[in-house]
Amino acid sequence: MTTLERSLPPVPAVWRVRAGVELKEFFRQRESVVFTLAFPVILLLVFGAVLNYNLGQGVGFVQYFMAGIIGAGILGAGLQNMAISIATERSDGTLKGLAGTPMPKSAYFVGKVVQVLAVTVLIVVLLLLIGTVFYKVPLPTGSDWVTFVWVTLLGSAACTIFGIAVSSLAKNGRSASATITPIALVLQFISGVFFQFTQVPGWLQTIASFFPLKWMTQGLRSVFLPDSFAAQEPAGSWELGRVALVLAIWCVGGLVLCVLTFRWQDREAR
Q1: Residue 20 placed within a domain
Q2: Is residue 4 situated within a structural domain?
Q3: pTM for this one?
Q4: Residue 185 to residue 191: CA distance in whole angstroms
Q5: pLDDT band at 12 (very low <50, low <70, confident <90, very high)
Q6: Residue 59: half-sphere exposure toward Cβ, Cα within 13 Å
Q7: Would you say residue 174 lies in a domain?
Q8: Domain limits at 137?
Q9: What's the total number of domains in the chain?
Q10: Would 234 be classed as within a structural domain?
Q11: Residue 163 CA to chain centroid, in angstroms?
């Protein structure tokens, strides 16, 4: 073995182990699985059954709604699930215990990220399957798949980092759901998840533009809708370059915010 090979870090097996632990823990919690996976599916089925009217140019509401509901699913897996689980583990002493072990702290976050990514893939596959089979929503084609993948990955990363950051807002695990869920619901309403974004009042559109969900759903609409629908966006185009920029800024800025605010214990325990 050369000197260079000896200087390279070993394969981070502890990361893989921690990722496996996080996945097992998630799927053992039926409430989390049902809420995170089933909620966007139920929304799609209900809204599709009630509001499947034509928006013009052969586009039905479900086709328009697909971008928003995928965005809501990603937000649920990244922001809600992440923030609530971290706050709960902080409150019950899990984080304090992990911080006192030889396990690198990075392994904890890697495990969480892998869990969110796996859940996000499941959500996206389920929603695409249901949308295609039951509502004949056309799948992306050609380069639209590339856009779909990078918007989904960047959006998931931004929402996950956002979730880690806002987990510190909850005073303890008991208040986590009551603290985090309203934030997610408000973002969904003002970001064009439940109806056309053009129907959102201008001042709420401005507020939504500061958060990743609005940009993620806009990027996803470019995948599912004809190019002619770009004229209905606030800027008159899909602004994919700006979508990428804002989501990337959220990832970088969110990491800084996490470093500054993350706590391994409840405030009241100090």
Answers
A1: yes
A2: no
A3: 0.89
A4: 10
A5: low
A6: 15
A7: yes
A8: 13-269
A9: 1
A10: yes
A11: 9
